[in-house]
Amino acid sequence: MGRNSNPRSEDYALWWILIAGILTLVVAFGIGRFAYTPILPIMQERFALSNTAVSALASSNYLGYILGAIFAAFVPTGRLQAMLLRSSLLTVAASTGLVALTSEFSMWLALRFIAGLASAGVFVSASAVVLGELAHRRRSELSGWLYSGVGLGITLSGLVVLLLNHSLPESSASWRMAWICLGALASLLVVPCWAWLPNVEATEEEAGGTGPESESVGDAPGLVRLSTNAHFGIVLLCIAYFLEGGGYIVAGTFLPAIVAGLPGLESLGPSTWILVGLAAAPSTVFWAKVASRMGYVAALVVAYVAQAVGIVLPAVSVAWWTPMISATLFGGTFMGIVALVLIYGRQLVPKRRADLTLGMLTAAFGVGQVLGPLVAAAVTGETGGFDRSLVIASAAVALGGLAMLLVGAHQRRSW
User: For residue 280, which of 131, 149, 401, 119 has the smallest C-alpha distance?
Assistant: First the structure.
């Protein structure tokens, strides 16, 4: 998709690029990473999977994502990045559908790992391509909308499973149909992604390295002075982000299964996941506006506290409204926290140290995601409920909020 000198034509082309970017995140996250969450209760019932087994499947996907993100970070912009993006989209679709063709647990582990690798390739490459285009065209204010694709994807995966639950309520093959349908949906979405994403032959500068839009307030004189004492602040931020990764992922993996196990609320599992997606879709834009008014630290503390409350609610109440409030608080915060932490971390250091800082934060968050489901399984036992896991996950997120307060205090002392 070439550049056009007509401003109206450029805006039109840019919107198609942005829509394609949103759809890539629908594939990468709504399907590649989180399709497993609404299907989990069906598979656990069909195969009598233990908590350790379902947690291992989740952690396999998250481990793949960490390794994929590390690899993708070293792929240069231009032709190789475009190849990685397109091949990763196809791999997500294929590895999702193939889960339906086997009942071997080892194969499930491998396929979920591959899906994690590929979803990271999509996320990193699509972010670079789309954000680079937005920066080049001086429309970076639209960047928050790119990440609405995560929430939209979660909503779509929840809707697919909900429809299958209603159409095949007693079928032992419903889990297969869920994976097949989501794999087919991912394959269909690959078509507009390929058609509308630009054939990027960008240089590093064009991808967002040197233009005025790429300058961060992190390079303002006040924050550059902070760089001499920034290391401890970054360590605190990594701790806060690690705790968020380990805490949020328990709800992100098990919330529909937890709700399905509540007396009288058995049918609300997929519906709860749909609500998570609807709350997540506008959340990055919402929290960016909150941060512009309150500051990043204050906004992050509020988001951490809200999420901690949302996570623990199903463990302390079985009221009919509990799943709705829990899903709204959880869905409305987890992507907002991710966006704000990465932006804030970038601001704490000079531009030359930004890549290292973002890499440290991504690694801390990823390790938390891998460990979270495993800790949850260890706490609940093989067949127990997840109440204690939710309490521990909520406490981890609350501690992350406390660590965020310490980050703010350290920043004020360092000025």
Answer: 149
CB contact set of 15 (below 8 Å; sequence gap of 6+)? none
- The answer to whether residues 345 and 27 touch, using CB atoms and an 8 Å cutoff, is no
Specify the DSSP element, H or E, that contains 224: helix 221-226
Q: What is the pLDDT of residues 375-385, one digit of tens each?
A: 988 888 766 67
CA distances from 356 to 207, 227, 342, 361 (A): 18, 13, 12, 9
Return the percentage of the chain with pLDDT > 90, whole number. Answer: 47
The last residue of a domain, from among 183, 214, 245 = 214
Residues 92 and 234 in one domain: no
Determine the Cα–Cα distance for residues 201 and 77; give it in Å rounded to an integer. Answer: 8
Q: What φ, ψ does residue 102 adopt, rounded to 5°?
A: -145, 150
The CATH number covering residue 321 comes to: 1.20.1250.20
The mean pLDDT of 59-84, rounded to a whole number, is 87
Alpha-carbon dihedral sign for residues 86, 364, 336, 341: negative
Asked whether residue 316 falls in the same domain as residue 383, the answer is yes
Amino acid at 224: V
- Sequence-distant (≥ 6) Cβ neighbours of residue 139 within 8 angstroms: 14
223 compared with 134, residue with greater pLDDT: 134
The tokens for 81 are 């990045």
Domain that holds residue 322: 216-415
**Residues 311-332: tens digit of each pLDDT:** 999 888 888 888 899 999 999 9
C-beta of residue 241 within 8 angstroms of C-beta of residue 115:
no
Identify the domain boundary among 214, 232, 248: 214
Say what the pLDDT of residue 202 is: 44
Total tally of structural domains belonging to the chain? 2
Q: What tokens appear for 298 in the block?
A: 């204050």
Average pLDDT (351-363) is: 75
Tokens of 28: 């990468």
Rank 41-50, 140-149, 153-162, 199-208 by mean pLDDT and report only the highest.
153-162
User: Do 168 and 310 belong to one domain?
Assistant: no
Give the integer Cα–Cα distance in Å for 410 and 160: 46
d(CA 352, CA 357): 10
> What letter represents residue 357's amino acid?
T
